[in-house]
């Protein structure tokens, strides 16, 4: 399943991925997550509100900081 298919799916929920990374890294909030991912806080907000899909670059960064595999991250998005 491609990233585009996942994000257009009715079951697509990026919050699961964001929340899982926050929990795994024991971060306090989305601001701490944005610092860990090295993105501006509005990027996390847009992803959380489904106005910005999780793209390949941020997906790779999520993998790098969390040690979740790309497959695990994609499954969390589509579950």
UniProtKB/TrEMBL annotation:
Origin: domain of life: Bacteria
Protein name: XRE family transcriptional regulator
UniProt source species: Pseudoduganella namucuonensis
């Amino acid at each position: 399943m491609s990233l585009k298919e996942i994000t257009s799916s009715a079951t697509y929920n990026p919050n699961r991925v964001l929340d899982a990374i926050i929990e795994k890294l024991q971060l306090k909030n989305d601001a701490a997550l944005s610092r860990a991912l090295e993105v501006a806080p509005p990027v996390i907000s847009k992803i959380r509100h489904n106005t910005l899909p999780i793209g390949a670059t941020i997906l790779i960064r999520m993998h790098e900081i969390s040690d979740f595999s790309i497959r695990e991250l994609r499954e969390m998005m589509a579950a």
